[in-house]
Amino acid sequence: MGGFSVWHWVIVLGIIVLLFGRGRISRLLGEVGQGIGIVKRHLKG
Q1: Phi, psi angle pair for 3, to nearest 5°
Q2: What angle do CA 32, 39, 34 make, to 5 degrees?
């Protein structure tokens, strides 16, 4: 009962894709990546 197995994560990811759709998820991940890039540039100066 303790931890999650690989199958739990596969099912969870499948549900997320069904709820949000692939386009929305990829757009969100792209925006997160851009935000990380901006933060890195500001930290470097």
Answers
A1: -100, 175
A2: 30
